[in-house]
Amino acid sequence: MCPRPLRMIRLPWTSLTKFWATAAILVGLVACSPAVPAKDAAVENLRLEVIDSFPHDPAAFTQGLIFDQGELIESSGLYGRSFISRTDPVTGQVLLKQPLDRAYFGEGVAVIDDRVVQLTWKSGVALVFDRNSLDLIDQWGYNGQGWGLAYDGERFVMSDGSSRLTYRSAEDFRWLETVEVTLEGKSVERINELEYVDGKLYGNLWGEERIVRLDAKTGVVDAIIDASGLLTPAESRMVDVLNGIAYDAESDSFWLTGKFWPRMFRVRFVKR
C-alpha cells in the first residue's frame, strides 16, 4: 500500500527548495516499495496410506513399473535374467513376458502411444516394444547409464543415478535438456525409478525407503514420502530395495513394490 500524501506546511522561501528536494527523494525511495519476495514453499512430509496388497513375482528384480489399461507393465533387471512383462495387478499372474538379450540389464520403462520403451543400464540402448504384444520393434542409442524413465505427454525424462534428469525427444530419444534435482537448494543424487503425474515427477531414491516428489520443469523437490515399513521383518530379509512406482489415474492411487519383493502395494500419499 502507498503512503498518504505529504501534508502541506508553511516554510520560509529559503527552506522550501530544500524541503521539496528532500521530499522527492524520500517519495522515490519509499512510496509503493516492492513487497518482500515470498519464501519458497515448505517441503511437505508425506506418508503411505496402504489400501491393499497383492502377490508379486518374487523373481522380479523390479526396475520400472507402469499401470497400463488395467495391467502392470514391469521391467526386471540383472544380466541374463532381464525381461519386460505384463501382469495382472490383483493376482500377480504374469500374462505376457519378453526376455531380454543376455547382454542387457533391464531398467526404467515408459509407455508412449502404441509402444513401450525400456532402458538398459550400461549398454546405452533403449529398447522399443509393441505395447500389446511386447515384441521388440526398434531401439535407440543414448550416452551414459539408464536408470529411471517416464513420459510427460511430450518428452521422455530419464534418470542416470546422479542428481540430473535428462529430457529426450519422443521421436528418436535425442537429448533436449538437463534439469538438476534439488532439495532446499542442495542437489539430490541417486534418483532412480520415475513416474510422471500432472506436472510432478515421483522418484525412488536408490537404497532408501523414501520417494521424492518434484516439479518436472524446475527439478525442485516439494515433498518427501516416507515409504518404510511395507514389508514385514521376515519378508525384508530375502529382498532388495524399494523400487517401482506406477500411478493408477482411475483410482488416484499408486502401485509400489521392490526388487524381489513378494508383494505389490496399492497406496495413497497423505500428510503425516
Keywords:
8% helix; mainly beta; 49% strand; four-stranded antiparallel sheet; 272 residues; eight-stranded mixed sheet; disordered N terminus
Summarize the structure in words.
With about 270 residues, this protein is mostly beta strands. Helices cover about 10% and strands about 50% of the residues. It has two helices and 22 strands. The strands form five sheets. Strands 16-17-18-19-1-22-21-20 form an eight-stranded mixed β-sheet, with no helix packed on it. Strand 17 and strand 18 form a beta hairpin. It starts with 12 loop residues before the first helix and ends with a strand.
In short, what is this structure?
This protein has 272 residues and is mostly beta strands. It has 2 helices and 22 strands.
The overall pLDDT, averaged over residues, is 88
> Kindly, what is the distance between the CA atoms of the first and last residues, rounded to a whole number of angstroms?
38 Å
Helix content: under 10%
Q: What is the overall number of helices?
A: 2
Approximately what portion of the residues adopt beta-strand conformation?
over 45%
Task: Describe the largest sheet.
Answer: 8 strands, mixed
Helix-strand makeup class: mainly beta
Shape: globular
| Lateral strand order in the biggest sheet | 16-17-18-19-1-22-21-20
Radius of gyration: 26 Å
N-to-C SSE series? HEEEEEEEEEEEEEEEEEEEHEEE
Low-confidence stretches: 1-39
What is the β-strand count?
Answer: 22
